[in-house]
Amino acid sequence: MAEVEISFDPGRIDFAATSEVIKASYWGAQRSDEIHRRAFGNSLCVAAFMDGEQVGFARVVTDYACFAYLCDVIVWPERRGAGIGKKLIRALLDHPDLATVGGWSLRTADAHSLYAGFGFEVSEDGKAMLLRRSR
Predict the structure, then answer these.
(1) DSSP for residue 79
(2) 113: enclosing H helix or E strand
(3) By 3-state DSSP, what share of the chain in percent is helix, strand and coil, each rounded to 5?
(4) Mean pLDDT to the nearest integer, 50-68
(5) pLDDT score of 135 more than 60
(6) DSSP states along 15-75
(7) For residues 78, 9, 63 and 26, what is the CA-based torsion angle, rounded to 10 degrees?
(8) How far, in whole angstroms, is CA 65 from its chain's centroid?
(9) How far apart are CA 71 and CA 45, in angstroms?
(10) Quick one: how many helices (H) and strands (E) in the chain?
């Protein structure tokens, strides 16, 4: 199998492919390309490549000081199971601009064990709250 290359260069991200893969996910089905343009533009994004072809994506919404919200971690369907998602998460957790961030969060319906491997725990403290607004 080819080596996985991780890049934080936004110019290398295949926006169309990334937007389509996320829109095919259970969490991104309601999103548009315009929403993705704004979301990606206001996040620290990372992409995974194999043989020069993008095969994964993830992003963090952060203030670079106190909080980081990990989201849109996705690997192209035909490349899943090869540890690419783990490499994306590790790259974000190890990013030097995020080294002082102590509060990380995320939401998932099906990948709890993946994130637990990095130290994430399910919140049961009664403090996490969510507001959902109609668009």
Answers:
(1) G
(2) helix 112-116
(3) 30, 25, 45
(4) 96
(5) no
(6) HHHHHHHHHTSTTTTT--HHHHHHHHHTSEEEEEEETTEEEEEEEEEE-SSSEEEEEEEEE
(7) -20
(8) 19
(9) 10
(10) 4, 5
- Cα 18 to Cα 79, 99, 100, 123: the distances in Å are 14, 26, 29, 29
Q: What is the pTM of this model?
A: 0.92
Class level of CATH domain 4-116:
alpha beta
Q: Is pLDDT of 24 > 80?
A: yes
Nearest to 47 by CA among 37, 36, 55: 55
For residue 76, what are its two tokens?
A: 């192209």
Confidence tier at 49 by pLDDT (50, 70, 90): very high
The residue type found at 43 is S
| Amino acid found at 56 | G
Query: Cα(82)–Cα(87) distance, rounded to whole angstroms?
Result: 10
68-127 pLDDT, tens digit per residue, is 999 999 999 999 999 999 999 999 999 999 998 999 999 998 898 999 999 988 888 777
